[in-house]
Amino acid sequence: MKVILKQDIDTLGSAGEVIRVKNGYGRNYLIPRGMAVQATPRNIKEAEENLRQQSHKLERVKNDATALAERLEALDIVIPAKVGEENRIFGSVTTQQVAEVLKSKGLDIDRRKIELDEEIRSLGVYPATIKLHADVVASVKVQVVPE
Asked: Nearest CA to 135 among 51, 54, 55, 65?
């Protein structure tokens, strides 16, 4: 039996693919759960049209992410922190603090998309990466200064 997947399934394939599965698996599991539809000529044409439209949307999202990455790389992220002896800060700088600084500058970035290369526990400049899209990653510098 041929089916068109409606969502990504790790063991089978990605959404929009036409695959061959055993009859019982398709009829009793994939189709009733809404994971796939039967691959009729009409459904195949519809799936191709959806993929074509989706590719245009994905391209637009990627272009927006690229523009945002350029804006992010031009920014200076300065985080004030309380300092103890030997320029060591109390606690550490987290991705949440970086996200708050970005939000104050008008950029709403989720903290889970921000990755710090190392724990920030002293003053200085540290690299951070922000994953905006599967193919777009922005590299920014986080500067920690005394409060």
From this structure: 65
pLDDT at 125: 94
User: By C-alpha distance, which of 40, 139, 81 is closest to 48?
Assistant: 40
Q: pLDDT digit string (tens) for 86-124?
A: 888 988 999 999 999 999 999 999 999 999 988 999 999
Band (135; pLDDT cuts 50, 70, 90): confident
Tokens 């005394």 belong to which residue?
Answer: 146
φ/ψ region of 87 (left if φ > 0, alpha if ψ in -120 to 50, else beta) reads left
Q: Match 């063991």 to its residue by tokens.
A: 11
Report how far residue 69's alpha carbon sits from residue 129's, in angstroms, rounded to the nearest whole number: 10
| Residues forming a β-bridge with 5 | 36
Alpha-carbon span 108 to 11, nearest angstrom: 35
